Amino acid sequence: MAARILRTFLTVKPSNSIIKRFESNKKSVSVYDPFRNKPQKNKEAYLEAIKIFESQDKRRRGHVEFIYAALARMKEFGVHKDLEAYKALVDVLPKGRFIPTNIFQAEFMHYPKQQQCAVDLLEQMEDNAVMPDSEMEQMLLNIFGRRGIPVRKFWRMMYWMPKFKYLSPWLLPDKLPDDTLELAKMAIQRITSVDPDIILDIWQTEEITASIDKTWIVSAQSRAQKVLLAEQPLDEPLVVKGPYNVYMRDQVVTYFTLIGKTRPEPTDDRDIDDVSNISKPTGIPGFIGSTKLPSVKCTVHEQDDGTIVSVCATGTSSRDSLLSWIRLLEKYDNPLLSEIPVIFTLTAPPSDIAIQETQPATTEEANKEGT
Amino acid sequence: MKSFLKLKSLSCISNNCRQHSFLTKNVIQPKAKLPITQNVSSRFLFWERDRKGGYDTSQKISLSEHLKEGYKEIKGEFKLLGQEIKALIETDPLLVARPGETDLIWCFNKPSVLEKFITTSDSDHNEGYSTSKLEMSSAGRALFHGNLDVRVPKDGRIKKAGYAAMRSQRIRKSFKREATYDWHIYNTLVIKVRGDGRSYLLNISCEGYYDITWNDIYHYVLYTRGGPYWQIAKIPFSKFVLGSKGRLQDKQNRMRFDKVTHFGITCGDKIPGRFNLEIEYIGLEFDPTHDEEFAYEMYKTDRYIVGV
Q1: Staple partner for A194: which of B29, B159, B218, B229, CB 3.0–4.6 Å?
Q2: What sequence ranges are listed for the domain ECSIT C-terminal (chain A) (predicted)?
């Protein structure tokens, strides 16, 4: 019996206890929605709606509900990455009122709904990678005081977010270009950044008279790749592989690769113990790295599943545009392509996958077990 | 069929959404055996019920079945024990790592290595629609791929969705005794991948004995270049940050290299769509030029501000 009583105490849930710290994050029903009837969904309209709410009622009744409703509609208005909009929302909360005045208030989450609301706001900022600034800190300090949980959340964010903001070795601009050509250029530049010698070409398919699709092609080929292509055996066909995806943040760029055969492994039958006639090293060793690891070929383009001869992205990603790409490669310094066969192994573009809208139904077996 | 579904949904409500006291739950609501009902306990204040945090999918089997299954495994377990005793007698552990050489923990060149990993995604627990798979790629490597979906199921409980993860199985000694990796002679993680431009999360779990350490995972980001070229990422262990249940902790500390229990990779960058990560190997290296112990500040802050 004692064990049971103890267990009851130990498993007590926050709802049963006095502390209701984080329970209040269940969103309340918003009664008043000033965002619904906005003709234009943009930043001005959003800020205006907040201003209307602030001026409507001196006591600003229902401001927590208002902030939750506003947070939910940020994406709709396109302000979910806008620090100013978040600041305007924080500004709705009254200053000074929620600052705890004694240690009990400070410890037991003074004004829990309001604090949780501000924490949720900060969390949404974090999810959208919006870094707050010191003005926001001042606002939060004025609203919740030093001991407020939103302020601590802010401090945590300001500690961690700058550490990770510019960590990526392939940094992207804050706003990706809207133009697909510019985006494709960035993507191809990024995926071919292994070879600093790479040259990016932007061609128009109009140059090839037989082409049907009139579009652009971003093609990348380095001088080493040109040599590798020129040395391809004539009887072995080259393969155009793709489409593959590369993500530039949330934008997807489709690219294709032209792949040839890997050169045969260099064989060395010389007796390495024979020191009577040591020749000068040829300069390019066959392998780099220790023999324990999977071996690496001497150019980065030679990989174990083939030699990457060129990479491209086209405006339409169609078969015809790729044919034009091969013809253009041939035109610009790759004469071997006129003699060598090229195979197109294009799978149909990965169309939308059928995704069930509702929860997946239980399987038959599971049903049998259950019943 | 129909009545069953109704029953299921009803019990869903009573199990998860309503708050019962512990007593009434035990007496009035004997837990119905339901196939995929999500049954994650609410936040308890003092203790964790199980290591899986309510996501335990292991099935209970009867004692006789247990004995039958166990009998089949005795031979293999004794073989393992023999190997352990042999290693103990030989007493030839690796004391020093050669600088600049990578020791591979997993080299994904055959399907048997892939079986040491388990993939999970939120659809496994009816908490989302993401899918994931770990398969051999056409180049003969491990391919962690799937579809990331950030739609939230409309069950009124889940706020966010969209993750897919692979994690190594717990390393063990013979007779199913749990063991840990001992990586104390290394200081760098080396991973050779071919990604798709997304950023992934590397997770090193250091589960301890007590329940507050069960969810301790050290994280770091793996940025992938994308494209057809392989990339080798070398990440010092000092850069890994401590998180628990996905939340970065205020009180950070360096990981215990001799208590590593799992290694995993997560895809959860909030970008819906397909993901592809081809992995050639995961290894460890000792870099003598890297003498940083922990990359993040460890200074003391005011009382009652941090870790509350």
Answers
A1: B229
A2: 222-347
What structural domains does chain B harbor? Answer: 1-58 (no CATH), 103-285 (2.60.120.430)
Q: Residue A136's CB: how many other CB atoms inside 10 A?
A: 21
Bigger pLDDT: B139 or A154?
Answer: A154
Q: Count CB neighbours of A220 within 10 A.
A: 23
Is B247 near chain A, with CB under 8 Å?
Answer: no
Nearest Cα neighbor of A255 from A168, A349, A354, A353 is A349
Work out the angle at residue A118's Cα, subtended by the Cα atoms of residues A112 and A119, and round it to the nearest 5 degrees.
Answer: 85
Rounded to 10 deg, the angle between the A43-56 and A83-90 helix axes is 10
B29/B13 Cα distance (integer angstroms)? 12
CA distance A84 to chain B (A): 23
Chain A nearest C-alpha distance from B276 (Å): 9
In Å, how far are B83, B172, B179, B185 from B88, measured between CA atoms?
9, 16, 15, 19
Q: Are A129 and A135 in contact (CB under 8 A)?
A: no
pLDDT, one tens digit per residue, over B173-230 is 999 999 999 999 999 999 999 999 999 999 999 999 998 899 999 999 999 999 999 9
**ipTM surpasses cut 0.85:** no
Rounded CA gap, A149 and A110, in Å? 10
Q: What is the DSSP letter of B210?
A: S
A227 contacts A263 by C-beta, under 8 angstroms: no
Q: Which has the closest alpha carbon to B280: A242, A248, A288, A304?
A: A304
Of A321, A299, A207, the C-alpha closest to A255 is: A321
Establish, for the pair of chains A and B, how many residue pairs have beta carbons separated by less than 8 Å.
Answer: 148
Lookup: tokens for A21: 């710290």
pTM: 0.80
Using the Cβ of B94 and the Cβ atoms of chain A, whether some distance falls under 8 Å is answered with no
The two tokens of residue B51 are 């290591």
Separation of alpha carbons B237 and B294, rounded Å? 8
> Which has the closest alpha carbon to A156: B246, B223, B295, B251?
B251
Name the B residues in 27-86 with CB < 8 Å from any A CB: 33-36, 42-47
Contact A260, A307 (CB under 8 A): yes
Chain A touched by B89 (CB under 8 Å): no
- Whole-angstrom distance, CA of residue A174 vs CA of residue B39: 41
User: Residue ranges of the domains in chain A?
Assistant: 30-165, 180-265+295-344
Q: What single letter denotes the amino acid at residue A81?
A: K
